[in-house]
TrEMBL record:
Its main location: cytoplasm. This is 3-methyl-2-oxobutanoate hydroxymethyltransferase. Its cofactor is Mg(2+). NCBIfam families: panB (TIGR00222), PRK00311.1 (NF001452). Its EC number is 2.1.2.11. Binds 1 Mg(2+) ion per subunit. Pathway: Cofactor biosynthesis; (R)-pantothenate biosynthesis; (R)-pantoate from 3-methyl-2-oxobutanoate: step 1/2. It is found in: Cytoplasm.
């Protein structure tokens, strides 16, 4: 038990204190009411409605087709379940890529319609002016650097970043920090690079496939609980095998119904 597990509601100050105390930040994605309720009660500090919902909820090949309406739909469900966790929603591909103004309009819509605490956008230096615009307007922003799934086509696939050193990614992180981001996701990056960045900026880094040197970690709900097996990246640790539990339970139910064992008397009016 850490002193942070006693907190009734996680807020921006919590993350500043956690970074200063060297207390790791935990985050898991969620996309629906029931899952978010479990996570919120478990004590995770950040629930992220990620555009990973494109793959794990909808079966898209990547996050590109995800729309702002879809993010808003899922975020509203997560909000109804969450009392304690800090809530962050992804801005999907196309919702902020035309201009800073387009991004701001959509970010305003996202926080207004969902009641979420913050939005997340991908990109480094090139997004700094947008992060500043959002924060000036009162919208809290999480950055996202390293492997950026929304850039899958221009990046030439899902490739680990930072193999040529830390300079460029550190510049990106510093630009986001200066622009007002409250935290930065570092995805798919060499561990030493992510650690160097984490030590050289004052805001927390949240790693996914970026090693143990980050100030926190995030994983996708369907990955961490062993629900999604289209592909399982190297960085995923499955803490449960829910796919097998559900599959076995389903087989038992089928057998019971076929054998007229279900519904027995106790399940009957
Ligand atoms: O979309 C998502 O779930 C994310 C996390 C993996 C960081 O961006």
């Amino acid at each position: 038990m850490s002193k942070y597990s006693e907190l009734k509601k996680i807020n921006l100050n919590t993350f500043k204190k956690m970074k200063a105390d060297g207390e790791k930040i935990t985050s898991i994605t969620a996309y629906d009411y029931t899952s978010a309720k479990i996570l919120d009660k478990s004590g995770v500090e950040i629930i992220l409605v990620g555009d990973s919902l494109g793959s794990v909820m909808n079966g898209y090949d990547n996050s590109i087709p995800v729309t702002l309406d879809e993010i808003i739909y899922h975020a509203k469900a997560v909000k109804r379940a969450s009392k304690r966790a800090y809530l962050v929603a992804d801005m999907p591909f196309g919702s902020y890529h035309v201009s800073d103004e387009q991004g701001l309009e959509n970010a305003i819509r996202l926080v207004k319609e969902t009641g979420f605490d913050a939005v997340k956008i991908e990109g480094g230096k090139g997004r700094a002016s947008m992060v500043k615009k959002f924060t000036d307007a009162g919208i809290v922003v999480m950055g996202h650097i390293g492997l950026m799934p929304q850039m899958v086509h221009t990046m030439g696939g899902y490739k680990v970043q930072g193999r040529n050193g830390h300079e460029e990614m550190l510049e990106d992180a510093k630009a986001l920090e200066e622009a007002g981001a409250f935290a930065i996701v570092i995805e798919g990056a060499v561990a030493d690079v992510a650690e160097k960045i984490s030590k050289n900026i004052s805001i927390p880094t949240i790693g996914i496939g970026a090693g143990a040197g980050c100030d926190g970690q995030v994983l996708v709900y369907h990955d961490i609980f062993g629900l999604f097996d289209d592909y399982v990246p190297k960085f995923v640790k499955q803490y449960a095998d829910v796919k097998t539990i559900v599959g076995d339970a389903c087989k038992q139910y089928i057998e019971d119904v076929k054998a007229s064992r279900f519904p027995a008397k106790e399940y009957t009016y």
